[in-house]
Design a protein that fits this description.
The complex is a heterodimer of chains A (about 110) and B (about 110). Chain A is mainly beta and about 110 residues long. Chain A has no helices and eleven strands. Helix content of chain A is about 0%, strand content about 55%. The chains are: A mainly beta (about 110), B mainly beta (about 110).
């Protein structure tokens, strides 16, 4: 089953604009991660934010986490054509004891037009 | 430093056949997870191997089985293939136990069932 749900499902912007993607999840978590997937390729880890953190930055990426609302957002600033990809949030579920798996959402397809 | 490698890259099988997919983890990693990604969906966790044992399993039938070797490489076996098994199969590696760590993914094996 999918725990995370990304919103929007698809986003098309111009180069230089900012892109914001949102993720909602259902259970309590230890951390939330964002991944990028270029067409036909594997996923690439972008950033991990722990449940006791509210905001994290990495280069042009900014991630926020609101555990009270069970939601996260990923902001990509000054987007480039090379940012065109699908973006997924992934969570672990710590409500039932030891958990070693990630549960992914369906993803947001970001298209950055030159 | 080699990343996660998977073989083969593409595979075509017919219903009822059996298939074996292979994965070599990133150097220094000892944990391997397998995911199934249907077209337009996020990855779904199949199982994880650590110290040559299946540590956790997702909601997949017993037709899906795996193995981890002493060198940490892993195989995914699927028996009695169904049309619905057509998907991209992703292998991910990480190091150690505890909280879910960032996963390093291979580029996957694209399995098509005719």
């Amino acid at each position: 089953s999918q725990q995370g749900e990304e919103d929007p499902q698809a986003l098309s912007i111009q180069e230089g604009e900012n892109a914001t993607m949102n993720c909602s999840y259902k259970t309590s978590i230890n951390n939330l991660q964002w991944y990028r997937q270029n067409s036909g390729r594997g996923l690439v880890h972008l950033i991990l934010i722990r449940s006791n953190e509210r905001e994290k930055h990495s280069g042009r990426l900014r991630v926020t986490l609101d555990t009270s609302k069970k939601s996260s957002s990923l902001l990509i600033t000054a987007s480039r054509a090379a940012d065109t990809a699908s973006y997924f949030c992934a969570t672990d579920d710590n409500s039932g004891g030891s958990n070693y798996k990630l549960t992914f959402g369906k993803g947001t397809l970001l298209t950055v037009n030159p | 430093d080699a990343g996660v490698t998977q073989s083969p890259t593409h595979l075509i099988k017919t219903r009822g056949q059996q298939v074996t997919l292979r994965c070599s983890p990133k150097s220094g990693h000892d944990t391997v997870s397998w995911y199934q990604q249907a077209l337009g969906q996020g990855p779904q966790f199949i199982f994880q191997y650590y110290e040559e044992e299946e540590r956790q399993r997702g909601n997949f039938p017993d037709r899906f089985s795996g193995h981890q070797f002493p060198n940490y490489s892993s195989e995914l076996n699927v028996n009695a293939l169904l049309l619905g098994d057509s998907a991209l199969y992703l292998c991910a590696s990480s190091y150690g136990t505890g909280l879910v760590q960032p996963q390093h993914f291979g580029d996957g094996t694209r399995l098509s069932i005719l």
